[in-house]
Specification:
This protein has 254 residues and is of the alpha/beta class. The chain has a seven-stranded parallel sheet, sandwiched between helices.
Length: 254
């Protein structure tokens, strides 16, 4: 029987994390590295990726590869996958975490350019990366794909319409890829509610405090490090019989 602590051991594995240089992505990168995985840190800002890669190597002694990638660009997604395989030979963990949700005043203000950009970053890139890496994972005999959606997927608001549609599509995509690449590849999704990442710096937290207490059973927003348990579960052998799942992580939104 495998010891419980061994279930979460990621030694010898490599994880690719998009949107990996900050916020929830950064926390997942650090957690995977701490548990022994090499990491590929991808985002549009290479300087942030390089800084985190240096930190990871210094703290945990694993290999960390920074890659500049706009996941909304098909060719850049393919290049990310090729670069990761060229460096490490295999990929066992993929996290589709990159996302964006620009503000607008009303739905009719959503331009075609904004619509396409939000769909591309939140859904198209995750689809393509899951396809090209997932197929190689299947051929290699194992792998875990984790997508990060949002409570907006099931609780959409007019202020995040396109983002919500893209994240709902991610739920559908999770189920589809679980069927396409199983049983070798497990494909799951984390659905976070509000987390106090970089984006929350623009929130009026004092005025939101009361609404958080009323709206969420936990009475607060999530802290970035609280994503780690779910990410490690899905990435590791601890979730060996879990695929096609969407895990609600919203503090008990009422």
């Amino acid at each position: 029987m495998t010891h419980v602590s061994e279930l979460f051991d990621l030694s010898g594995r490599t994880a690719v994390v998009t949107g990996g240089s900050r916020g929830l992505g950064r926390e997942m990168v650090l957690a995977f590295a701490e548990h022994g995985a090499n990491v590929v840190i991808a985002s549009r800002k290479i300087e942030n990726c390089e800084a985190l890669a240096a930190e990871v190597t210094d703290r945990f002694g694993v290999e960390a590869m920074p890659v500049q990638c706009h996941v909304g660009k098909w060719d850049q997604v393919d290049a990310l996958a090729d670069a990761a395989y060229e460096r490490f030979g295999s990929i066992e963990i993929l996290v589709n975490n990159a996302g964006m949700s620009p503000l607008y005043d009303k739905i009719t203000d959503v331009s075609e350019e904004l619509y396409d950009k939000v769909m591309d970053v939140n859904l198209k890139g995750a689809f393509r990366l899951s396809a090209v890496i997932g197929e190689r994972m299947r051929d290699a005999g194992r792998g875990s794909i984790i997508s990060v959606s949002s409570s907006a997927a099931i609780r959409p608001t007019p202020g995040e319409s396109v983002y919500a549609m893209a994240k709902a599509g991610m739920h559908n995509m999770t189920d589809m890829f679980a069927k396409a690449y199983g049983p070798e590849v497990r494909v799951n999704c984390i659905m976070p509610g509000p987390f106090l990442t970089d984006i929350s710096k623009a929130w009026d937290l004092k005025s939101l405090e009361k609404s958080f207490k009323n709206a969420f059973s936990m009475g607060r927003a999530g802290e970035p490090h609280e994503i780690v348990g779910a990410a490690l579960y899905f990435a590791s052998d601890a979730s060996s019989y879990t695929t096609g799942a969407v895990l609600r992580m919203d503090g008990g939104w009422k």
